[in-house]
Amino acid sequence: MIVGRVVGEVVCTRKFRTYDAAKLLQVQPLDLQKKDRGLPMTAIDLVDSGPGDEVLICLEGQSAVDAIGLGDNPVDAVILAVIDELKVADA
């Protein structure tokens, strides 16, 4: 799982029928200092997050598929939580 920030919404005129009701968001991955890390990605939103929200993203393949509960349909990224506060312990 990774931390990210919602940077936009994805609007589709047509989607694969299994995902018709799914809300798609554009998410910028972040490092633990909340700085951009890599390129933005599209994720299925399960928690009604919106632009500016910091979120927890599942990129774990089968875990992402299981999280949305739509059978064996392909999924790459799923937003599982909106982060209220993130504390990083000293190593």
Helical content class: under 10%
Q: What is the topology, as strand order, of the major beta sheet? A: 1-2-3-5-4
Give the integer mean of the pLDDT values: 87
Helical/strand content category: mainly beta
Describe the main β-sheet briefly: 5 strands, mixed, barrel
Query: How many domains comprise the coordinates?
Result: 1
Give the ordered list of helices and strands.
Answer: EEEEHE
Q: Beta-sheet strand percentage?
A: 25-35%
**Number of DSSP-assigned strands:** 5
Which residue ranges are poorly predicted, with pLDDT under 50 across at least 5 consecutive positions? none
Structural write-up:
There is one protein chain. The chain has 91 residues and is mainly beta. It has one domain. 8% of the residues lie in helices and 34% in strands. It has a 5-stranded mixed β-barrel. The two termini are 19 Å apart. The mean pLDDT is 87.
Descriptive labels:
91 residues, mainly beta, 5-stranded mixed barrel, 1 helix, 8% helix
Topology (SSEs and partners):
Elements: E1 2-9, E2 23-30, E3 41-45, E4 54-58, H1 62-68, E5 78-82
Parallel strand pairs: 3-5
Antiparallel strand pairs: 1-2, 1-4, 2-3, 4-5
